[in-house]
Amino acid sequence: MKKVVIVISGIALIAALGAGAYFLFPGDSAEKYNFTAAVNGNIAQEVNLTGNVKAAESVKLAFEKSAKIALSNFKVGDKVKTGQLIASLVSSDLSAQLAQARAAYDAQAAILKNLEAGAGSEDIQLSKDQVQSAEKTVADSQMNLSNVQAKADNDLNSLYGKSSDILNDVYSKSFDALYNQTDGLFIDGTASQPMLAISLTNSALKNSLEQSRPAANQELTSIKNEIDSMGTGQPSIDNAMAGALSHAQKIRDYLNNLSNALNYTISSSATPASQILTYKSNINSGLTNINSSIAAIGGQQKAIATQKVTNQNLISSAQTQLNQANNNLLLAQNQLKLKQAGATADQIAAQAAAVRQASAAIQNIQAQLSKSALISPINGTISQQDAKAGEIASMNTPLISIISDVKFQIEIQTPEADIEKIKAGQTAEATLDADSSQRILQAKVILIDPAKTIANGSATYKVTLEFTREDPLIKDGLTANVKIITQQKTNTLLIPASAVIKRYDKEIVLKDNGAGGVIENTIISGISQNGLTEILFGLTQGDKVASFGTK
């Protein structure tokens, strides 16, 4: 049961009744108001849930997205503390986006402030300067994107330019291995029906080698054809390398069979044992060379693939910067227009919504950044560490396990409406149904399951909390009532929640006009709790507002 919802709903009902009275009887000279001054104070938002105690074993950590791992700080057996960074992904683009989103929020808040106050000539000139600066940033970002794209193309073309030499080397080493190093083993190795010049104890093996020799010769010809038909385009080069690699591998397989056949060779005066050893040495030399050329093709293919990924990341980052620069320019242009034209009540309300939207954008990027870092949610010992710097992490694949130093945890199935409020690391207070004294035990959120569970037709998410201290009262299977502190604000501006009036898409209060009456004042509210509401914009400390429900 969510007590906070009931309290706030009751306050909202009182506010609604009071607001109705105000608007039904605006001219009642007998109307008197109970004013309350806005004051600075502390406020917290809570979520009340019920769960079960369980014995803690380990916490598995996984990234919520796929990207390259930037760093990994611990190894198996290391002790870690709550809040320590264990591993992180490459997230420079998100950090840049966060900085840009914060700048956009500041710009939107400044616009709202200016709309309220009105703009002077100096302020208008400042906006013009900001537009010019934003235009220059757009031009610089466009130039940067062009430079990044040009460099990406040049780097990739340079890499592809090495492919021809690699393929020619493959052909040369395959030719040497197939003909020069096996010269003497066949009477005519290039004939359509070649014959081995050595005697084998295994006649079936001898026939197999003689029959498969033309196919090996054809693989060498195919390598040459791949080189001769290769165009200058990147897809053509990719196909040629893939084809040459396949042909070279088949030649290598044939040479391995030929090398093994020498174990069945019958030495004679025509083919003494020393000659057989020479044949083996020659074939092994050819195999070494052809294996090195095969490895060179694989290395080239991998280098090209890596370069393509690098190019895409650099271009994407540059494009993001350009997009943000264009957004900032549009904001600056809109700000100038608003200052030049003056603001209406609707514009002020719309700009207040834009401020909230900019704030939401910051929170969204912060949420994405949190997915790029694995933070230890508990004190414990690393029992699994598969996060290696430079490797690509797969989304939702557990890479790190931590054995908790604390014995017991609480598991809660959390409704979908509350899950966005809960974050790892938030503090909580818990009481146990089995404890008649209802002593408060401290806990902390350590894990939020990304997968939902459908229970009675509603989506829930498992949230795991950890007791911060051991206590003899705590036992496996007990029912725990948990109050999670989802937000805390200190020294923030507060007024009674009953003073806030919801009107369509904006919020207002009735502010003391100093003469016993009131004036409407647009505000932006924050969190509410226990009959109080946080004011983000529209009032200052000491302003008096009417609290409905009192004559």
What do these coordinates show?
The protein has 9 helices and 20 strands. By secondary structure, it is of the alpha+beta class. The protein has 2 domains: 3-56 and 406-546, Efflux pump adaptor protein, beta barrel domain (Elongation Factor Tu (Ef-tu), domain 3), CATH 2.40.30.170; 119-342. The chain has a 6-stranded antiparallel β-barrel with strand order 2-11-14-13-12-15. A 4-stranded antiparallel β-sheet has the order 3-10-8-5, with no helix packed on it. Strands 7-6-4-9 form a 4-stranded antiparallel β-sheet, with no helix packed on it. A hairpin with an 8-residue loop joins strand 12 and strand 13. Helix 2 (92-117) packs parallel to helix 7 (273-341), helix 3 packs antiparallel against helix 7 (273-341) and helix 4 runs parallel beside helix 6 (234-261). It is elongated and about 125 Å long. The relative contact order is 0.20.
SSE topology sketch:
Elements: H1 3-24, E1 35-37, E2 39-55, E3 58-61, E4 67-72, E5 79-80, E6 85-89, H2 92-117, H3 121-160, H4 163-180, H5 203-229, H6 234-261, H7 273-341, H8 345-370, E7 373-375, E8 380-385, E9 392-393, E10 400-404, E11 408-415, H9 416-419, E12 427-432, E13 441-455, E14 458-467, E15 479-496, E16 501-503, E17 506-512, E18 518-529, E19 532-537, E20 544-546
Antiparallel strand pairs: 1-20, 2-11, 2-15, 3-10, 4-6, 4-9, 5-8, 6-7, 8-10, 11-14, 12-13, 12-15, 13-14, 15-19, 16-17, 17-18, 18-19
Helix pairs in contact: 2-7, 2-8, 3-7, 4-5, 4-6, 4-7, 5-6, 6-7
